[in-house]
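Schema walk-through. Below, the input block comes first and the output block second. Nothing else is stored per chain. Lengths vary across the set, and this one has 191 residues.
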Amino acid sequence: VWTYSAAGAGAVNLTATGTGTDAGTGRPVSASGSAGLTISAASALVSALTVVPSTATTPSVGQSVEVRLTVTNTGGVAVNALTPLAQPQVNAGAGLVSFVSGPTPAGGTLNAGASATYAWTYNVTGAGTVSWTATAIGTDAGTGLARVAAGTKTVTTLSAASLAAYAAAYPSPRNIGQGFLVTLTVTNAGG
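--- output ---
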Protein backbone atom coordinates (compact mmCIF):
# COMPACT_ATOMS: atom_id res chain seq x y z
CA VAL A 1 0.00 0.00 0.00
CA TRP A 2 1.30 3.40 -0.98
CA THR A 3 -0.14 6.74 0.02
CA TYR A 4 0.24 9.80 -2.19
CA SER A 5 -0.72 13.42 -1.79
CA ALA A 6 -1.71 15.37 -4.89
CA ALA A 7 0.04 18.68 -5.48
CA GLY A 8 -2.32 19.79 -8.24
CA ALA A 9 -5.28 18.88 -10.41
CA GLY A 10 -5.07 16.76 -13.55
CA ALA A 11 -4.74 13.23 -14.93
CA VAL A 12 -2.47 10.76 -13.15
CA ASN A 13 -1.35 7.31 -14.29
CA LEU A 14 0.09 5.03 -11.60
CA THR A 15 2.08 1.88 -12.42
CA ALA A 16 3.42 -0.62 -9.92
CA THR A 17 5.61 -3.68 -10.53
CA GLY A 18 6.32 -6.47 -8.12
CA THR A 19 9.21 -8.94 -8.61
CA GLY A 20 10.24 -12.07 -6.77
CA THR A 21 11.37 -15.69 -7.09
CA ASP A 22 9.07 -18.65 -7.52
CA ALA A 23 9.67 -20.86 -4.45
CA GLY A 24 9.05 -24.08 -6.37
CA THR A 25 11.09 -23.47 -9.50
CA GLY A 26 13.53 -20.80 -8.39
CA ARG A 27 12.71 -18.74 -11.47
CA PRO A 28 12.21 -14.98 -11.31
CA VAL A 29 8.61 -13.79 -11.56
CA SER A 30 7.09 -10.33 -11.95
CA ALA A 31 3.69 -8.70 -12.31
CA SER A 32 2.64 -5.14 -13.17
CA GLY A 33 -0.52 -3.19 -12.85
CA SER A 34 -1.54 0.34 -13.66
CA ALA A 35 -4.44 2.59 -12.92
CA GLY A 36 -5.41 6.04 -14.13
CA LEU A 37 -7.31 8.65 -12.25
CA THR A 38 -8.20 12.31 -12.48
CA ILE A 39 -7.58 14.63 -9.58
CA SER A 40 -10.00 17.55 -9.42
CA ALA A 41 -9.32 20.85 -7.72
CA ALA A 42 -11.43 21.34 -4.60
CA SER A 43 -14.35 23.73 -4.73
CA ALA A 44 -13.56 27.36 -3.94
CA LEU A 45 -16.18 30.00 -3.27
CA VAL A 46 -15.89 33.72 -4.00
CA SER A 47 -18.72 36.01 -2.92
CA ALA A 48 -19.93 39.60 -3.10
CA LEU A 49 -22.81 41.32 -1.32
CA THR A 50 -24.73 44.18 -2.90
CA VAL A 51 -27.68 46.25 -1.73
CA VAL A 52 -29.98 47.40 -4.51
CA PRO A 53 -32.49 50.16 -3.80
CA SER A 54 -35.76 49.51 -5.58
CA THR A 55 -36.49 53.11 -6.56
CA ALA A 56 -33.42 55.33 -6.15
CA THR A 57 -29.63 55.39 -5.98
CA THR A 58 -29.70 55.87 -2.21
CA PRO A 59 -32.61 54.27 -0.38
CA SER A 60 -34.95 56.45 1.68
CA VAL A 61 -37.36 55.71 4.51
CA GLY A 62 -40.44 54.02 3.07
CA GLN A 63 -38.59 52.33 0.19
CA SER A 64 -37.53 48.71 -0.09
CA VAL A 65 -34.05 47.35 -0.77
CA GLU A 66 -32.87 43.98 -2.02
CA VAL A 67 -29.78 42.47 -0.39
CA ARG A 68 -28.05 40.15 -2.90
CA LEU A 69 -25.31 37.61 -2.15
CA THR A 70 -23.64 36.41 -5.38
CA VAL A 71 -21.52 33.28 -4.94
CA THR A 72 -19.18 31.90 -7.63
CA ASN A 73 -17.53 28.46 -7.46
CA THR A 74 -14.03 28.98 -8.91
CA GLY A 75 -12.92 25.45 -7.96
CA GLY A 76 -12.94 22.16 -9.81
CA VAL A 77 -15.90 20.32 -8.23
CA ALA A 78 -19.43 21.22 -7.21
CA VAL A 79 -20.58 22.49 -3.84
CA ASN A 80 -23.58 20.45 -2.70
CA ALA A 81 -26.50 21.82 -0.70
CA LEU A 82 -25.25 25.41 -0.86
CA THR A 83 -27.85 27.14 1.29
CA PRO A 84 -28.10 30.81 2.28
CA LEU A 85 -28.88 31.51 5.92
CA ALA A 86 -32.48 32.54 6.60
CA GLN A 87 -31.70 36.22 7.23
CA PRO A 88 -28.49 38.21 6.85
CA GLN A 89 -27.11 39.70 10.04
CA VAL A 90 -28.08 43.37 10.27
CA ASN A 91 -25.93 45.83 12.21
CA ALA A 92 -27.80 49.09 12.27
CA GLY A 93 -26.09 52.35 13.09
CA ALA A 94 -28.70 55.08 13.15
CA GLY A 95 -30.47 53.45 10.17
CA LEU A 96 -33.27 50.96 10.61
CA VAL A 97 -34.68 48.25 8.33
CA SER A 98 -37.34 45.57 8.69
CA PHE A 99 -37.12 42.11 7.10
CA VAL A 100 -39.76 41.36 4.43
CA SER A 101 -38.80 38.13 2.65
CA GLY A 102 -36.08 35.79 1.44
CA PRO A 103 -33.88 34.14 0.67
CA THR A 104 -34.76 33.37 -2.92
CA PRO A 105 -33.82 30.92 -4.23
CA ALA A 106 -33.52 28.63 -1.23
CA GLY A 107 -30.28 26.96 -2.38
CA GLY A 108 -28.97 23.89 -4.19
CA THR A 109 -25.89 22.53 -5.95
CA LEU A 110 -23.38 25.07 -7.30
CA ASN A 111 -21.34 23.44 -10.08
CA ALA A 112 -17.69 24.29 -10.77
CA GLY A 113 -17.48 27.57 -12.68
CA ALA A 114 -21.10 28.52 -11.92
CA SER A 115 -22.60 31.41 -9.96
CA ALA A 116 -25.78 31.82 -7.94
CA THR A 117 -27.40 34.92 -6.47
CA TYR A 118 -29.53 34.79 -3.31
CA ALA A 119 -31.79 37.74 -2.44
CA TRP A 120 -33.56 39.10 0.65
CA THR A 121 -35.95 42.08 0.75
CA TYR A 122 -36.04 44.72 3.50
CA ASN A 123 -38.04 47.92 4.07
CA VAL A 124 -36.14 51.04 5.14
CA THR A 125 -37.73 52.38 8.35
CA GLY A 126 -35.11 54.83 9.65
CA ALA A 127 -32.36 57.04 8.24
CA GLY A 128 -28.68 56.33 8.92
CA THR A 129 -26.08 53.60 8.38
CA VAL A 130 -27.06 49.94 7.98
CA SER A 131 -24.64 47.03 7.49
CA TRP A 132 -25.61 43.52 6.30
CA THR A 133 -23.57 40.31 6.48
CA ALA A 134 -24.98 37.41 4.42
CA THR A 135 -23.71 33.83 4.47
CA ALA A 136 -24.25 30.65 2.42
CA ILE A 137 -22.98 27.22 3.54
CA GLY A 138 -22.51 23.96 1.58
CA THR A 139 -20.19 20.95 1.24
CA ASP A 140 -17.44 20.17 -1.29
CA ALA A 141 -18.68 17.34 -3.57
CA GLY A 142 -15.22 15.76 -3.60
CA THR A 143 -14.06 15.99 -0.01
CA GLY A 144 -17.28 16.51 1.95
CA LEU A 145 -15.67 19.47 3.72
CA ALA A 146 -17.75 22.52 4.56
CA ARG A 147 -17.59 25.52 2.23
CA VAL A 148 -18.69 28.98 3.40
CA ALA A 149 -19.31 32.12 1.36
CA ALA A 150 -19.99 35.44 3.09
CA GLY A 151 -20.17 39.09 2.18
CA THR A 152 -20.72 42.39 4.00
CA LYS A 153 -22.15 45.65 2.67
CA THR A 154 -22.85 48.97 4.39
CA VAL A 155 -25.24 51.60 3.03
CA THR A 156 -26.52 54.95 4.24
CA THR A 157 -30.28 55.40 4.15
CA LEU A 158 -31.96 58.80 3.95
CA SER A 159 -35.05 60.34 5.48
CA ALA A 160 -38.02 60.44 3.13
CA ALA A 161 -38.47 63.61 1.11
CA SER A 162 -40.58 66.25 2.90
CA LEU A 163 -41.42 69.12 0.56
CA ALA A 164 -42.84 72.49 1.56
CA ALA A 165 -43.81 75.21 -0.90
CA TYR A 166 -44.47 78.95 -0.50
CA ALA A 167 -45.87 81.12 -3.32
CA ALA A 168 -46.02 84.92 -3.46
CA ALA A 169 -47.18 87.47 -6.09
CA TYR A 170 -45.62 90.97 -6.51
CA PRO A 171 -46.53 93.84 -6.58
CA SER A 172 -49.47 93.83 -4.30
CA PRO A 173 -52.12 95.07 -4.93
CA ARG A 174 -52.29 94.50 -8.69
CA ASN A 175 -54.31 96.43 -11.22
CA ILE A 176 -55.95 95.26 -14.44
CA GLY A 177 -53.39 95.22 -17.24
CA GLN A 178 -50.48 95.43 -14.82
CA GLY A 179 -47.73 92.76 -14.98
CA PHE A 180 -46.81 90.92 -11.85
CA LEU A 181 -44.21 88.45 -10.63
CA VAL A 182 -44.99 85.11 -8.96
CA THR A 183 -42.30 83.31 -6.96
CA LEU A 184 -42.45 79.74 -5.72
CA THR A 185 -40.02 78.62 -3.05
CA VAL A 186 -39.72 74.87 -2.45
CA THR A 187 -37.72 73.32 0.41
CA ASN A 188 -37.00 69.70 1.25
CA ALA A 189 -36.77 69.11 5.00
CA GLY A 190 -36.29 65.36 4.41
CA GLY A 191 -33.54 63.35 2.73
